[in-house]
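#struct-queue
[09:14] JT: dropping the first one here, sequence first, then the structure tokens:
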Amino acid sequence: MAESRKIIISLPSSLLQEVDTLASLEKINRSEFVRQAMKLYIREKKRIEKTETMKKGYREMAQINMKLAEMCLEADNQIQKKYEDRLAECE
């Protein structure tokens, strides 16, 4: 593990009691519990940020995709009209 540094934090008694209970169940000490909790929090925060970035990208692409779909539909309609006109000429 990288160099460790000691910090002092204040916790409400009820939260400390929960930490101690969970740490005991996990068979780890407070420091390890706090390290794991911090790592989990940071990972989750990054995951949420990545998800939000992806949502934003999908919203932006939705507008672009809609414009492309409309352009293609218009082109398809024009081709269909030309085809039908040619069929009408043959009759």
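[09:21] JT: and here's the second one, same format:
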Amino acid sequence: MTQIKISSCSVILIVLFSASIIINGCGKEEKAPEVKDTSENSEKKTEQKETKSQSSPGKEFFYMKSSSNNIACADCHGDGTNSDRPLTKYFSDIKGADKRTSTYHGKIKGEEVKNTAGGATICWESYMKMKTPMTPEQIKMLNEYYTSVGTSDSPTEINYETIALPTRDKTKLKEVQKEVLKLKGDPVKGETTFKEACAVCHGETATVKKVPSILEEFEGNTKSVTYNVRLGDGSMPFFNMNVLSDQDIADVSEYVLKINGQ
């Protein structure tokens, strides 16, 4: 039998080689794959929460269109995000409306402000023509939404110059009609004002009734336009004197009568 001699250096090399196999091979501990779930998932959760907070039952109700005439609260009143709707410049915003001391030209005061959702119950029945009264739950939703959008620069007591409140004053209306008739209307300016203040309901894409066909329902002159603007009628809200002047009415009248061939 042939004897194999192994030098001490060879032994050392064999030992080192074996150790390397043990460390880097079979004996290697597999690390579990890293889960990136924490940062990415938390971001998604945050986004979902933010999206949820941007929408609420109160907001959905505020933007809901009337089944009777396709008008929504958000068509006339601003919440800080809908200034692209032209009518919001003519009517009070809703920020903190539940905390006002009075609204609707002082007709609604104290606790009734909150109980009527800042007077929204009147708009609901008078202008949106809803057939059933606003429910306590709907009032609560609106009040919560008013709070969520912050506070307004508007005063806590909403008063303005009008002959429509506290009751429709037809005696004073005659005086206003005489004043408007003294003014010379500008149809060009009237068209601009009409597009801002009237076209939502009476323009080419009317939600209520188009002009000039609406003129068939009344005398169709400056006096009748003044009547509707100052006192309101049916779904049409009145415009107070602070936001729509007598000259504006004269201009709009001139424009409306012009397109009606008068």
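[09:30] RK: nice, looked through the second one.
[09:31] RK: Residues 170-259 form a domain with the Cytochrome Bc1 Complex; Chain D, domain 2 fold (CATH 1.10.760.10).
[09:31] JT: good to know. Residues 58 and 137 are 10 Å apart (CA to CA).
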